[in-house]
Design brief:
The complex is a heterodimer of chains A (287) and B (285). Helices cover 82% and strands 0% of the residues of chain A. By secondary structure, chain A is an all-alpha fold. Chain A has two domains: 53 residues; 224 residues, MetI-like (MetI-like fold, Orthogonal Bundle). Chain A starts with a helix and ends with a helix. Chain B contains twelve helices and no strands. Chain B is mainly α. Chain B is 82% helix and 0% strand. The chains are: A mainly alpha (287), B mainly alpha (285). At the A-B interface, α1, α3, α4, α5 and α7 of A face α1, α3, α4, α5 and α7 of B.
């Protein structure tokens, strides 16, 4: 009797250990699949770019900047990306606040419009802007009459960047605002704080990490943006040629080494930025 | 009296706040209108300006049909690959603790830090003349660059983060308990996955797929570089728009652009609508 129970116990134990071994194998298999997938699909291509870009060590960055109009292209990209990020950090926060705190007709339409840039192909965005603000449209001609040329200028580049990155800050800030208790703001107002003061002292500290995170995504996206910019910028070297479009042109002219060194430089900038800012956010939320 | 005065004062202040809010809402609406609404109206107006016949005329052209077919094939492949492997990666990231997990987690986000143009360049460096895999592929007669395989690969690369980033938080939220319970009750791994895990993560998965669809339909920078833009052979719908504009076939470009935009918008709107419906059904139950 007790012997039978013992064998049964032993058998189930061995079965369980076999089960466990199988489960462990399955876990290992899935982990291996995940690592191989990401390694082959993401790490290898990036390694190809970076090894080519670093071909002659740090000297290759000097070579990259020595490519005629490379310096101007990189400068234009960084400056326009910074301005577009600033605009959308402010406007994105404003839109998120309006969507959460105000009730007005058309609020849902506004909310849906904000998501549109995630759906519309970037090239179509560029074409849309060119169609509306370009020289063939009455609006474009009217603006030109006032001395404001949008198409084929830096303003066009900025406009395109602002459109494609519109959802990023809004969608980071909105959920945080939703969770924020309006009672705190009301308390500030009761204590005599004006709307602006209570926003600055109560709301802003809570949503700052979200704004920074969204701005970071915006900047990284701006640095690499191609589809929406290529049509409206006019791509004049030294004036409106951005770094991604320049990389595209160099690759098409069979100059992959120069293209890779500029691409690595841009990748290094956006990667360092991601790293630094994510550290900043972590530290602030820890404190 | 002393009680009434502050009340009136509060009302006045609220009225002022209402005005302030109205102004802020107006600024938000104006900004979005200038950036999106007006350009959207502009392109619809332009697409139909030559008359409705231009739509049929454009869609009857074999190169346009081939471009849409190619976009469809690339999008379908990208969805299958990124969803299957995205599930595996998300599951491993949430359910397993192992050395190098933080690195894997970081690698998932790398495609966000890379310009699509750079992704295309990477494919050229890997598969082009003198590239890492060039000799291997040439010896076997496999054409990757300037052909469909490289166009699929770059699109997959760009779309990798979407499904994973949607799945990870949901998987974290649901925890292990339900899956463990199902396993204890004798369900197989596959049954547990189908009947416990998938229903929990369904909406996140669908939303990830929707974002992937929209992105792969609209991808231009990377595919433009690796395709070699061979008309009627490696032209996707977005590349068709690009080349049509260069050839001054503006009307056709507008029609194809409008169809692409409408398709992506429909995909996203459908998913969000389905999502809201089930949320409502759940809260009513």
């Amino acid at each position: 009797m007790s012997g039978a129970a013992q064998t049964l116990g032993i058998r189930s134990a061995s079965l369980r250990s076999k089960d466990r071994r199988l489960a462990a194998l399955r876990h290992l298999g899935l982990r291996a699949a995940a690592i191989v997938y990401l390694g082959a699909m993401v790490a290898v291509p990036i390694a190809a770019i970076v090894t080519k870009g670093f071909g002659d060590g740090l000297g290759s960055f000097r070579t990259a900047l020595a490519v005629p109009s490379a310096g101007a292209a990189i400068r234009l990209t960084l400056i326009t990306a910074a301005i577009a990020t600033g605009i959308n950090a402010a406007m994105g926060t404003l839109i998120a606040w309006v969507l959460v705190r105000s009730r007005f007709p058309g609020r849902r339409v506004l909310s849906a419009m904000v998501d549109l840039p995630m759906a519309i192909p970037t090239l179509v965005t560029g074409l849309m802007l060119l169609t509306l603000y370009g020289p063939n449209s009455p609006i474009g001609r009217a603006l030109e009459g006032v001395g404001l040329q949008v198409a084929f200028t830096v303003i066009g580049v900025l406009l395109a960047l602002c459109v494609v990155t519109l959802p990023l800050v809004v969608r980071q800030v909105q959920p945080v605002l939703l969770e924020l208790d309006p009672a705190e703001e009301e308390a500030a107002a009761t204590l005599g704080a004006g709307a602006w003061l209570s926003f600055r002292k109560v709301v802003l500290p809570a949503i700052r990490p979200a704004i920074v995170g969204g701005s970071l995504l915006t900047f990284a996206r701006c640095i690499g943006e191609f589809g929406s910019v290529v049509l409206i910028s006019g791509n004049r070297a030294g004036e409106t040629l951005t770094a991604p479009v320049f990389i595209f042109q160099l690759t098409n002219q069979f100059r992959p080494a120069e293209a890779a060194s500029i691409a690595t430089l841009m990748f290094a900038i956006s990667f360092a930025l991601v790293l630094v800012t994510s550290r900043l956010i972590v530290r602030r939320t820890d404190a | 009296m002393t009680v009434v005065a502050p009340a009136r004062e509060r009302d006045a202040r609220r009225g002022g706040a209402g005005l302030g809010r109205g102004v802020l809402a107006a600024i938000a609406i104006a900004y979005v209108a200038i950036l999106l609404l007006l350009p959207l109206i502009g392109i619809v107006w332009r697409a139909f300006q030559p008359g409705m016949s231009i739509v049929g005329e454009t869609l009857s052209r074999p190169e346009v049909r081939h471009a849409f077919l190619l976009t469809g094939i690339i999008t379908a492949t990208t969805i299958v690959v990124t969803t299957a492997f995205g599930l595996v990666v998300a599951w491993v990231l949430v359910r397993q603790r192992f050395w190098g997990r933080a690195l894997v987690n970081a690698v998932v986000d790398l495609p966000f830090a890379l310009s699509p143009v750079t992704v295309g360049l990477a494919a050229v460096l890997l598969f082009g003349t003198g590239g890492w895999f060039a000799d291997f592929l040439a010896a076997r007669g496999i054409q990757v660059l300037f052909a469909l395989p490289s166009m699929m690969l770059v699109t997959i690369f760009i779309c990798i983060p979407f499904t994973i980033r949607e799945l990870v938080p949901v998987l974290e939220e649901f925890g292990l308990e339900e899956e463990d319970a199902a396993r204890t009750l004798g369900a197989s791994i596959w049954q547990t996955f189908r009947h416990v895990t998938v229903p929990n993560i369904r909406w996140a998965l669908l939303y990830g797929i929707a974002l992937t669809t929209a992105r792969s339909i609209g991808e231009i920078g990377a595919v433009l570089i690796v395709s070699g833009t061979i008309a009627g052979l490696t032209e996707t719908a977005t590349i068709y728009i690009f080349t049509a504009l260069e050839e001054r076939l503006v009307a056709r470009a507008h029609v194809v652009a409008l169809i692409l935009a409408l398709t992506s918008i429909c995909v996203l709107v459908t998913i969000e609508w389905l999502h809201r419906r089930t949320e409502e059904a759940r809260s009513n139950a």
